[in-house]
Amino acid sequence: MTISDKVKNILEWILCIVIAFTLAVLIKYFIGTPTIVSQESMYPTLENGQRLILNRLYRTTKQAPQRGDIITFEAPSVKAYSSYNEIDLKNPVAKYENEPTGWFQKFAYYVLEIGKESYIKRVIGLPGEHVKIEGGHVYINGEKLQEDYLREGLETPQNVGTPIAFSDIVVPEGCVFAMGDNRSRSTDCRSFGCIPIEKIESKVWIRFWPLNLLGKV
């Protein structure tokens, strides 16, 4: 084999690797990706160690979120507040203050998801709806929300681990109000406010592990 043939083979391998990497990134970002549950906030619906496939077409095709959807979204930079002076209940939107700036930083953060933290929760309130948590129950526009996915007898506290709570608000346009099913062990919109729809990354689609629970979530 001549030197030129060796160089040609090396270049072909490099090209194959680049194409494979590009396809993997495109599929992960635009179509779907596997993940492992590492939070207890969605118990008993989802448990630690379970493996899921996330539907990224949900974001790619800009589907409107529906109540009851289990979604993943970028975690806010401010997880909780200690004073009502820090929040605006007329505009109860979660804060994202650590956005990357340069193109490479944005690519690494949003596409490769390096250093990015995500939450998995259930959509409860939709844009324009009045969400109120009172007496251990959730009310949407004054009507008690039926939540069959919760453990029997489980109540929904107004706040979890913080004295400040977004527990009586109108969901702003372009946002959703989401909570974990394990209401007393979930850091969610009660603590940091509503999530902009543009921050939603995916919808939970299929659970493929453990095998006895294989199927659509």
The proportion of residues in beta strands is 25-35%
Please write the string of helix (H) and strand (E) elements: HEEHEHEEEEEEHEEE
Unreliable segments of 5+ consecutive residues: none
CATH superfamily of the largest domain: Umud Fragment, subunit A
**How does the helix and strand content classify structurally?**
alpha+beta
Q: What would you call the shape? A: elongated
What distance lies between the first and last C-alpha atoms, to the nearest angstrom? 54 Å
What fold name goes in the CATH topology slot of the largest domain? Umud Fragment, subunit A
How many helical stretches?
4
What's the total number of strands?
Answer: 12
Number of domains: 2
The biggest sheet amounts to: 8 strands, antiparallel
| Gyration radius from CA atoms, angstroms | 21 Å
Describe this structure in words.
By secondary structure, this protein is α+β, with helices and mostly antiparallel strands. The protein is built from 4 helices and 12 strands; from the N terminus they run αββαβαββββββαβββ. The strands form 2 sheets. Strands 1, 2, 3, 4, 9, 10, 11 and 12 form an 8-stranded antiparallel sheet that branches. A 4-stranded antiparallel sheet has the order 7-6-5-8, with no helix packed on it. Strand 11 (200-209) and strand 12 form a beta hairpin. The chain starts with a helix and ends with a strand. The model has no long low-confidence stretch (mean pLDDT 93).
